[in-house]
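User: Predict the full complex structure for these chains.
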Amino acid sequence: MSEIGKALVVDDSSVNRLVLVRRLETLGLEVIQAENGMEALALLGAHPGAVDVVLLDVLMPELDGYQTLAAMKADETTRHIPVLVTSSVEEQDSVVRCIELGATDYLTKPINPSILAARINASLAAKRLHDLEVESFERQTALNRTIERQKEELSRFLSPQIAALVSSADGEQLLAGHRREITVAFCDLRGFTSFAEQADPEEMFGVLAEYHRMMGAAITEHGGTLEHFAGDGVMIFFNDPIRQEDHVERAVRMAIGMRERFAELSSAWHRRGYQLGFGVGIAVGYATLGRIGFEGRHDYGAIGNVTILASRLSSQAQDGQILVSPRAQTMLEELIESESVGELTLKGLTRPVMASNVVALR
Amino acid sequence: MPQAEPAEPVLDEAVLAELLATTGDDPAFLRELVETYLAEAPAQVEAIAVAVARADAAALVRPAHTLKSSSATMGALRLSAVARRLEMAGRSGALDHDAAVDAETVRAECQSASDALTAWLAREASA
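Assistant: Here is the predicted structure of the two-chain assembly.
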């Protein structure tokens, strides 16, 4: 017979214990027994989580029912176990005291078998409910841990801002698409294509890794949102998904920082025989931002003239130049020293654009 | 006067029959139970006698309580009633002359109950 639960019978009378054990076994329970409260607590300690219901006598040597009950309720591992107090009719006051101490219910001796069955079933149901709650809580905790771990993994592949956005409350709305003014910085390497043709793949990946590491540090430092790496081309935008009042300033500071660090990298590369240059284009304007792509492979991206403009400026930039759009130049006037590079005719744009090169911060 | 209760039988065999029915209709179990009771009850009677002789009310409660309870379970209702009176006396804290009389009565009733249970067992075995 498979047991429906495990009961602990605590009674100092062997006769009462025998009868109770037998009846509980007839009901389908597995039963362990103790002669007094001391033994009962020792058994509960020895079988943590195993006992589903305790039938507790009140008047016992060593440790009586009250003390046993109080000890059980004070212990985190036993406080949820239902306790049925077994007592005689003369002990009604004791029953009240036991219920106040946390007993689930009581049984009057001599014990009526039908009432015993009913109380046992109710207690086992309560215990099962409690166990389910504990199990569900544990499952939820495990799930939360998994989600946290996934977020952490996600943040390695995505910009931290976008990883945070995906799991934020208004993430769905922002991902669905919205329009906002942003600053876009587009950076790429001069001479990368010919370098890639000549160099060993290992060498090329080594150079790219150094370059990306340097870029990544600068992007993080200035709070940029990395849209993508495409070989040597890197697109970063500001003011989305996190709002940044000073988005133009952040972009230009980042670009200047990159240019300085690139100079160190390129002189090392130069000693190894590679001629690589660095150019940046910066533009300000409205774009539509959100989830772009197809089921199974989405990116968080920006679409608008501003991204095209930044990309075209970047391809026009000579080594060491940071070309900014007229609007960006106006917004940065007080912050930077710049020189006009004149009107540039950019692919895909109908009108020529007056571009300026950022010389330095003022 | 607290003499043996004429209203209560020495042994209510209906209690034993119900006990048998509610413990899986197993005569061997009932035999074990009766034997356990017969082995345990005299010690409680002795503990009662000692407590009453010393006028120790607190020490009287537990053996009287246990004897009351186990006797009721076995159908030894008259013995259970006397034991109950002794338990009450112990709980009240004052052991008077009646308690001393009951302590003697409980010994006699325990003997009667034991004889009745032994006879019942013998009858059951031959049935």
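The CA atoms of residues 41 and 68 of chain A lie 7 Å apart.
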